[in-house]
Batch of 4 targets.
Target 1
Amino acid sequence: MLRVTDRVPDTPSEAPPASPRKTSRGAVRGRRRVHGRAALLLLALPATAFFAVFSYAPLAGLAVAFKNFSISDGVFGSPWNGLDNFRFFFDSGDAKRILWNTLSLNVLFIAATTVCALGLAVMINEIRFRYLRKFLQSSVFLPYFISPVVVSIMLQGLLAGVGGQGGAVNKMLNIFALPSVSWYSEPGAWPWILTVVKVWQMSGYLSVIYLAAITAIPVEVYEAAAIDGASRWRMALRITVPLLAPTTVTLLMLSVGRIFYGDFGTIYAIIGDNGTLFSTTDVIDTYVFRSLRQNGDFGMTAAIGLFQSVVGLVFVLVTTFVARRFGRDTRVF
């Protein structure tokens, strides 16, 4: 017969102590895990510090978008004005034109560079001569490093020539008995001219990313297609391009996130303060720079920058939802 003092413990507090050997083994594993993670955390520390200082700390400056900013009062001493900075921009007659130019130009840039970069990567991948393939990879990548100022000078030589007269393009038009065009006073042509410049600059850079993704495709897939009698053209269309879909979606998401950011460096270097072309080339970034330079309105520029970031976040979320909804193999998150 069991006595009260001999009963089996039924609560965790009354459970027998764990074995010292098991405890020591668990402690050793825990220390090893901490030491392994400490090395990874040490590697991530510089990048973490960089983003903390240059990306997250400046977020406090977003308060300027809701203030009547004064340099003498500072960011936190300036009086609040609510949404007046946003109203000032959207109530102006330039808001609709600037938003449309920014969106339409970026859509042209994204569509053209994606298609051209993908096609360029597939064509370079089909080259059988190793040294020729490497030479072409380096050649198409070179325009990415050319300064926008140099691009502007090149365009002036092609479109305007010396003293604003002639130009290589106009001379070619004259060969075919076509009239010369005053390109720097024709705003309708510049969305397409800027798109050609963007394709020339970015297609080689993006094609290198696609070529890196192509190298990850198993060779056995192409061998099986060759056994079935598929041509190189059919293998490129039915194997290479579909398997590049995840990479394409990732690059598109990164591009869509900045769809309300104009390429300020390239556009301003080429267009400058040429008011004749503002109707089709003036984007948010150039407008903000010009307003800040002429009026010194920090509050409005901060409000437009905040608007760009919020809209970019919304576009990224929508793109992610569409990718997950219509392509399970292409979703990233």
Target 2
Amino acid sequence: MHPVALGQSDLRVSPICLGTMTFGEQVDEAEAYRIMDRAVERGVDFFDTAEMYSVPAREATFGATEAIIGRWLKARPGMRARLTLASKVAGPSRGMPWIRAGAGMAAQDIVNSCEASLKRLQTEVIDLYQIHWPERHVPAFGAMYYDPKKESSATPIHEQLQVLGRLVKEGKIRHIGLSNETPYGVHEFVRLAEQHGLPRVATTQNPYCLINRSYENALDETCERLEVSLLAYSPLGFGLLSGKFDQFAPTEPGAPKEARIARYESVQKQRWGRPDALAAARRYNALARRHGMTPVQMALAFCYTKWQVASTIIGVTSVAQLDEDLDAWGTELAPELLAEIDQIRWEMRDPAV
């Protein structure tokens, strides 16, 4: 794997990023260490986390993932210098009052969250610090439509950029990014940064997979023209594109119970739990098998080879899963297969938006 550039920043990272949201919930600390060790051994030098992880989000595990990574780094002198470490400040609490006292995301909230993440990660600087979801009201996490009547923004984008700029000047973060953003949001962050000499966003971390290609509906053009890189998350559609639910739906007795979507009701109620999402995933999984591939190979190769994607974030619960995901690197999808993928999308659209 050759390093890829992130936006206009000086960050150069592996085109596969290790997502860590399972650490501290599905994955205990010892297994998390084994996964991180193996990822580095195989050339992954880009790790992504967030203050709100583990997932599903609970007060008892808030910050647990960062703390595990911090202890792993402390036990491996010299490892921190080899890695690009990304984390995120949570947006407005969305029903998670343990994140912060207020419901919004004020400038001081960003500072407090960053400093707490630095302590848990046991590092002096976060290479890429991202806003996990917008401070303003936007359709995300399964919501379909923008509704101006629900607007509750209290911290303008300019103010968010100012406080992030302060954190850059203080040496606490190197570069900034967004997550779960819209074309308007990306454009406004870049416009204001350039107008006022503030840090320019390098990335946006958005869902991108066979059952959710909404990024290709204008946001890809925005990011391409503004030189903002996509970090694609959920490339396996929360497990639906792994093939493990092709026989039994996540809530049916025969389904594998270790998967997050099977174990947690909160996940089942989101976009990945929609019957249409499972139906589309089964179509794609069957297509992969007809072309002599596993569903995992085809789904990951789709992300790994798309021009829109800078780095694909993979989340795993075991070293075996990690190896399977990394082994898919280098898989090529024939033009006729890509045409069949597009035909399924034409018929079923993006059911996991």
Target 3
Amino acid sequence: MLDLKTQYMRIKLEIDSAIENVIQSFEFVNGSHVDKFSKGLADFLKVKHVIPCGNGTDALQIAIMALQLFPGDEVIVPAYTYVATVEVISLLGLKPVFVDVDEHTFTLDIEDLKKKITPKTKLVIPVHLFGQCADMEKIRSIAQEFGFKIIEDTAQAIGAEYYFSNDSHSKAGTIGDFGTTSFFPSKNLACFGDGGALFTNDDTLAERAKMIANHGQKQKYHHEIVGCNSRLDSIQAAILSVKLKYLNDYTKARQWGAGFYDELLNNLSGVRLPIRASYSSHVFNQYTITIDDMVGVNKESFRDHLRRELRKLGVPSMVYYPRPLHLQEAYFSSDFPKNSLPVSEYLSKSVLSIPIHTEMSRESMITITKAFYVAFETSLSAFQKKLHYSQ
């Protein structure tokens, strides 16, 4: 699904030099390397404050803590996303309220958001899933009307642009009260381990978030608020400073790859290709297709068969995500029983992601798509035979 080695080899001398500089400086925790990266990312995002931390999950937790919510406050979150988004809500004693997503963009459904607002709603966390933004202009307007905060989960969409109706634009993660991201190795801007950051234009929130990430202290051994210990490692910061210079190139490579996939897979009946929302660019952390309904075919079983056939042909694939959050045992609630969020449940049985990364070549993509056609037809034939025999 990724080719991190080739990406590294292209910038090996810069990366190795950056790591060596950290070792020679002995600034292993915080220090100039972390400051340099924070300022560089702030300039890239055109945001006032970047607060680095240990990972993307910590970034979400610190952002929520900085907003000073109270136990029992409700936080609206899409049911179709990675578990980290809801995990921190529950850990902080808040109540997750699940909303459905749009079938085509995979991001938060605006109409379902409106239905789930109550007097206890204090926060919404739109997830910019797979590489494009949720509809932030509408979400921000609703938040302003009802008086709740916004944290953008930008772990999969760093560098994406949101286009407002007045022709202005902003980077993903800079529109709400906070944006958060992860630098996990699979992300578009990735380090060689764990790392994360949160960003904001609010001076007060930034100061509070910095304190929370540093044991609740502004001054050493003077702990004003309850905090945690979450720091971006200096070596990872140095690596990220190098890779940040190439992020626009990485984005263009992923967008080119997605466009080429579109051309190659466009004639395959039974598959829906990724949709680009008119209000957002797409940076393609994942290239995710949807298996359409087919008469007499169980989509989930068909997809599993298709994955096995792809594996035989040497092509990896992934399912993001095989079970929506409201049906996970840890987060199940009678408020959100099975069939209550139909699009999230439909997508969990229908989606399939195929390889996309910065090192894709025409030749490799042609090979992948040829294998996909073969695997798809083999799977379809097998299910048609089953249907024939059952009749």
Target 4
Amino acid sequence: MKKRIIITLSLLLVGVLGAAGAVGYLAFVRPPANPPAEACADGRKPDARPTVVAAGSSSTQGTLGADWVAALRERPEYREYEFVNAGINGNTSTDLRQRVDTDIVACRPTAVTILIGGNDLRDGVPLDQYRDNLGAIVDRVKSRTGARIALMSLPPIGEDLDAELNQKLGAHNTVIKEIATRTQVDYLPVHERLADLLRQRGGDPAPYDFSFLLAFGAATQHYLFGQSWDEVARNGGRELHVDHIHLNDRGGAIITELAAQWLAT
């Protein structure tokens, strides 16, 4: 009897660890669909179909929270386009600056969206360094390609717009606007649209409480139990975020629509 119990518990432990490993891979390790390493490693032929590169961090990679790039790829009006997802979990503007040639320029893009900066804020990167990095990224893409460029403002961090992090976030979004104006590229008001939705909700927002454990729990609900990202957000009493940082499908749809409208102009 004792031996059977030990075997049963061991099998349960193996199953739990296997499930946890699968969730961790799908949410944090797995690359996005059509990353630059696959799409652009050998350069692109001049006659290739129009290519859109979406560059950024986890909010662009879309493996933890809404995959707005995939949603854009699936729209029938853009079936002739190729969408390259150059989002990498945890990236800062410094990281993106270091890979701008391999992950953006090498793709010979027709259009480029850039959504980067949330990790800079959370990691305490000085604002001047962020400004320098973002400006250098845009300047490099402009000088090496003929692509249209859109800078996206940063989504709210958590859902309390009056919280300290969101007050600091305002300075980063001001920098994004300034660089868009200086470099004469387009600006997409992601933050503004999402903030409007949060204001419409009313009531007291859930306090900011991001942690790796919370993110892993959100991923578990989605990948292991099949819940949509919208359901994950509702389970936590949140309107747009699955874990206070990454957006649910409703939030991701805002970015998809803004990007679609921009590409259509």
